[in-house]
Amino acid sequence: MTSFPRDFVWGAATAAHQVEGNNINSDLWVLEHCKPTLFEEPSLDACDHYHRFSDDIRLLASVGLNCYRFSVEWARIEPEEGHFSISELDHYRRVLACCHENKITPMVTFYHFSSPRWFAARGGWEKRDAGDLFVRYCERSAKHLGDLISLASTFNEPNLPQLLRWVSNVEIPFTTVMRMSRQATKALGGNKFGCFFLGDADRLQHHMIAAHHRALAALKSGPGAYPVGVNVSLQDEQAVGPASKRDQKCAQVYDPWIAAGGHSDFLGIQVYTRCRVNKKGDMGPEHGVEVTQMGYEFWPDALEVCLRYAADRVKVPIYITESGIATDNDARRVEYIQRSLEGALRAIASGIDVRGYIHWSLLDNFEWIFGYRPKFGLVAVDRTTQQRTIKPSAHYLGEIARHNRMPHPASVG
Fold it and tell me: Which is catalytic among the residues 88, 157, 297, 322?
């Protein structure tokens, strides 16, 4: 089998804070400018996608892709609690309209890690009423944008705080974390600065799962008719040795949110690598293996494994909402795409309902605490001039999308 299902979605993704630039009402903007900070550098202008979105969407269409997954920024839409910006909602209407003008299917994520300053200042997702505020934002946004949305997700990788609990091979500078949190609390007022990345994982999960189900209903209450799901981070978890904690990890990190996706219209999965787990927890990559700029092991086989894991647990359609690699060597990106998609085809051939593949990312962008060093993009960005340069991997993926099938092996390379 070399062909993908009819009407398969082929796309690339971005997140507002990572590409738009000058997201000054965001909690992450505050943390980027703390001293000390975990961030290697501040986001600043990012890729200036806020002003250049039309060119970027046309570029995506020009290489042969037919879907753009992007996030709308809560901190722009509701910059102060209870005050919604019509001009910012109109901005995202223009982004959506641009997608349709270029025959691109827009997939909208309503929360991609960043929150309004005021939301963080009042405690963020740890507060009992946080879900009420998120649902209100979703309902107001959907009322303004829903008729132009084709697919939507409530949250991007809401299980990340649980996943970070298991990262035992990376030393976390807790002193810096605490100083950042105190500084942000002092700057914004309130009792505790509540950032998604820094919150209590169990409390966040409880509040966010409840908020997901309510937000799903809120999004559907507005104009338009579109599927709504949630995008979950997965890894190929491999047990090493006796008494491995792999199953315990999967039950804690993945299964609650996969179940939430199973009660939605679709489940989005986001897969990059494998993780070896022994009786103590995560082990990190083996010595001498190829790793990416993020420190992940080069492991495109993870996608097929994770598709099967998810499909064993839910009976809704699955979208691959992120898959990619951080590297300066674009030939490795081409191989990663090729091998990942070959695995996806095997999963589809076995009967798994996979509806699309969305590459992370469209642009080389701001990669959170790592700054601009990791290069995930199909398109390079010169941040001095903001000039875009299409990489060979974009053309490779675009050709697959145009023909909806894998190329002949002789044409790969």
Answer: 157
